[in-house]
Design brief:
The chain is an alpha/beta fold and 330 residues long. The protein has two domains: 113 residues, 2-Layer Sandwich (ornithine cyclodeaminase, domain 1), CATH 3.30.1780.10; 181 residues, 3-Layer(aba) Sandwich (Rossmann fold), CATH 3.40.50. Strands 9-8-7-10-11-14-12-13 form an eight-stranded parallel sheet, sandwiched between helices. A hairpin with a 5-residue loop joins strand 5 and strand 6. The longest helix has 20 residues. It starts with a strand and ends in a 22-residue tail after the last helix. It holds the Pfam family OCD_Mu_crystall.
């Protein structure tokens, strides 16, 4: 019988220092191009539904695929709209070796990827983190960032005071000095790192509110119609991405400034592979405003699942991905 790693086990076994190091090794190694995610309409006239598949492999070692179903009307049934499962296979025999809770895996590796970028882009003395959003991903970001920077203070901004308060209570239990903030521009002035995980379609972060030296981590906005920052933030920052193909296909934070003519893709300073391999320079000085835009990469899922199942050296190059299994709430 295949081992199945529940969400609780994923949380317990994939500690951030080890996962971040594994992702760094995977991105450093590079790898062959992988297929972009596949999306299929599997619903009916009365019940819309989509099936998404995201494959990745490291030839001769391991391979895997994340499957995500999205049924928006599940709320009427009292169940979640998104379900996700990751299947890991042996790279020599093709035999399945493990099943993993897809949502927990995605949340964990997403936060770890942000922390990996922060390791190279935020100031080493960064102590105050502003989290914009109160969903599942947002709740993971402080622990991940604390694995690479001496985070002491966490500010939480969200549309729902109740959800923001609940997240602060959760973070306080984990040893953070956390507080709810209601004035986002004022909170931005206090932050060393700003990490956004929302589904916003209008800017939340404006360049006029950012102080020199801030690192901006944009995790949400995973479609061309969505965005979390204004054009001026992108234009004034040193911009890095997880993968070129993914962000230039899906990241509204970059695509909208490109369409407006206020910025161009040629100004991207590097992707995660170039950043961690030393092919491009990260932060240059303490006054830099750096920006990391992620839309997700299947290499992260495969690396995390292989690490979970006992294949710590497994790693592949950048791949395209979707945020279908994530929960974002501003």
């Amino acid at each position: 019988m295949l081992p199945y790693f529940t969400g609780i086990e994923v949380e317990a076994k994939l500690d951030y220092p080890r996962l971040i190091d594994a992702l760094e090794a995977a991105f450093r190694s590079g790898g062959e191009p992988m297929p972009v995610r596949q999306s299929y309409d599997v619903g009916t006239a009365d019940t819309p539904g989509h099936l998404l598949t995201m494959p990745a492999w490291d030839r001769g070692r391991t391979l895997g695929v994340k499957m995500v179903s999205v049924f928006p009307r599940n709320a009427e049934r009292g169940i979640g709209a998104v379900s996700s499962l990751y299947v890991l296979f042996d790279g020599q025999t093709g035999q399945p070796t493990a099943l993993v809770d897809g949502e927990a895996l995605t949340n964990r590796r997403t936060a770890a990827a942000s922390a990996l970028a922060s390791r190279h882009l935020s100031r080493e003395d960064s102590r105050t983190l502003l989290v914009v959003g109160t969903g599942n991903v947002a709740s993971h970001l402080p622990e991940a960032h604390r694995a690479v920077r001496p985070i002491e203070k966490v500010l939480v901004f969200g549309r729902s005071l109740a959800r923001a308060t609940a997240l602060v209570a959760k973070l306080t239990e984990k040893g953070f000095a956390a507080e709810v903030v209601g004035d986002l521009p004022a909170a931005l002035v206090r932050a060393d790192i700003v990490s956004c995980a929302t589904t916003s379609q209008t800017p939340l972060i404006f360049a006029r509110d950012l102080r020199p030296g801030t690192h901006v981590d944009l995790v949400g906005a995973f479609t061309p119609q969505m965005r979390e920052c204004d054009d001026a933030t992108v234009a004034g920052a040193r911009v890095f991405v997880d993968t070129y193909a993914g962000t230039l296909a899906e990241a509204g934070d970059l695509l909208q400034p490109i369409a407006a003519g206020t910025w161009s893709a040629e100004r991207i300073c590097g992707d995660l592979h170039e950043l961690v391999s030393g092919a491009c320079q990260g932060r240059i000085d303490a006054a830099d405003i750096t920006l990391f835009k992620s839309v997700g990469a299947a290499v992260e899922d495969l690396t995390a699942a292989a690490l979970l199942a006992g294949e710590p050296d497994a790693g592949v190059g950048p791949h395209e991905e979707i945020r279908g299994a994530l929960s974002f709430t501003a």
